[in-house]
Amino acid sequence: MPVLSEDSGLHETLALLTSQLRPDSNHKEEMGFLRDVFSEKSLSYLMKAVLMVHDTVAQKNFDPVLPPLPDNIDEDFDEESVKIVRLVKNKEPLGATIRRDEHSGAVVVARIMRGGAADRSGLVHVGDELREVNGIAVLHKRPDEISQILAQSQGSITLKIIPATQEEDRLKESKVFMRALFHYNPREDRAIPCQEAGLPFQRRQVLEVVSQDDPTWWQAKRVGDTNLRAGLIPSKRFQERRLSYRRAAGTLPSPQSLKKPPYDQPCDKETCDCEGYLKGHYVAGLRRSFRLGCRERLGGLQEGKMSSGAESPELLTYEEVARYQHQPGELPRLVVLIGSLGARLHELKQKVVAENPQHFGVAVPHTTRPRKSHEKEGVEYHFVSKQAFEADLHHNKFLEHGEYKENLYGTSLEAIQAVMAKNKVCLVDVEPEALKQLRTSEFKPYIIFVKPAIQEKRKTPPMSPACEDTAAPLDEEQQEMAASAAFIDQHYGHLVDAVLVKEDLQGAYSQLIVVLEKLSKDTHWVPVSWVR
Fold this sequence. Notes:
The protein is α+β, with helices and mostly antiparallel strands. The protein folds into four domains: 1-21 and 30-38, no CATH class; 79-162, Roll (Pdz3 Domain), CATH 2.30.42.10; 176-249, Roll (SH3 type barrels); 277-302 and 314-457 and 474-530, Rossmann fold, CATH 3.40.50.300. It has helices at residues 10-19, 28-39, 41-58, 117-121, 143-152, 236-249, 288-296, 300-311, 345-355, 386-394, 413-421, 435-438, 476-492, 505-519, and strands at residues 83-89, 96-100, 107-112, 129-133, 136-137, 155-162, 176-180, 206-211, 217-222, 231-234, 277-278, 281-282, 318-324, 335-339, 360-362, 366-367, 382-383, 398-404, 407-412, 425-429, 446-452, 458-459, 470-471, 498-502, 524-527. Strands 10-9-8-7-13-25 form a six-stranded antiparallel sheet. It has a five-stranded parallel sheet with strand order 15-20-14-21-24, with helices on both faces. β18 (398-404) and β19 form a beta hairpin. The longest helix is centred in the N-terminal third of the chain and has 18 residues, at 41-58. The protein starts with 9 loop residues before the first helix and ends in a 5-residue tail after the last strand. Residues 173-243 form the SH3 domain. It is found in: Apical cell membrane; Cell junction, Adherens junction.
């Protein structure tokens, strides 16, 4: 068999290949076709062109060209004490912040942003003294002037650096995930050391905190963001200190100090007893009057809890979270509905359970009122004595409770647990104040905020030549609905997992079913204490 040499051309190679073909009687046509293809001159020309382009590109050097060592290095420093660093960057920030040393007056690197150009180079470290930027001496310049020079530099930046006496070890990447409980815009933060290095985020966004070495400013990335460079965010302790100061100064009111608008009310008539029969299935519920009574006259124990919470209101900063997916054999997660005025959660909850009573259930409430002739124990209510009810109340067994016409009503935690024990998804609707009591690893609640769609009415102004519609102001009822929704969103929105805007019952039901179907299939972010 002939052997090819290094100088053999493409045409010779193909010709040799065709000569080695051994056609048999069954494949003469196919072999003839292949011989014609390999013998075609146009194929040879094409391959030669491809190889020429390859050789041309391969000879080029695409690495950045480092500059020669400058001749004007200060004589005060040995050659080994000065480091010339050239970083290549595009429009992204350099990824480092600087400060002036209080004792020596030198400009030093304060922090390296994870994933930035400086971090990726591995050539710049915290504590390095900066002497020149692109040949410009910076010893007597303010840090903001130096930052401006760095920001305006494009393509490459040449730094003259005096390395730190003891270079710190490369920081290990940490993976701590925090859900933000507040909005943050670094452009509005006068305390941040470098606004360009700040990371803006929205409430309930999940952040990956990659460095907590600085007790005041953490480095973090937004989960799902394609930007590899981390940004600065206020640390939990620093943000809590700022909120405490604002609260002490009276510029940050607590939810307990504000007048609460009315929340969702299940029935239109105050005396309605919420019989709750739909498609032949009974769906237990609490009357509107019970909710009113609950607000007007809280039990002594619950009232004590409210006052205790008012003494040390929660400061909303961050909540450490972890990924969680429901596993076979685990109890279903509790589904909690909260609603603003006009949401009518009761009818929505009724429809979900009535359509699929084998999969969904509700907690049967307790009452001290006499049982009616058509009612059954444990179906409409758990009928108990006032003494037994008050004993359970004393032992903190009720999630919500109230009094109406000298009768006590309440939803117990045991009633919720009984539904979950049947491997059913339990749906409860509560007032937002009860959410904190449910947010435990036992219930792992998925919280859905339902609010009615409020559309501005349109009217045609009289004598309008253009006949253009203008928006009429909201009527009193719509204003109350909007105020109720805004209050819940502002003070409890950080606890919400999903928001559902209800235009009509069927549309809201369809939206809710989609959410519930994903609950056991998708991965969700939950407080880290629920999965540890």
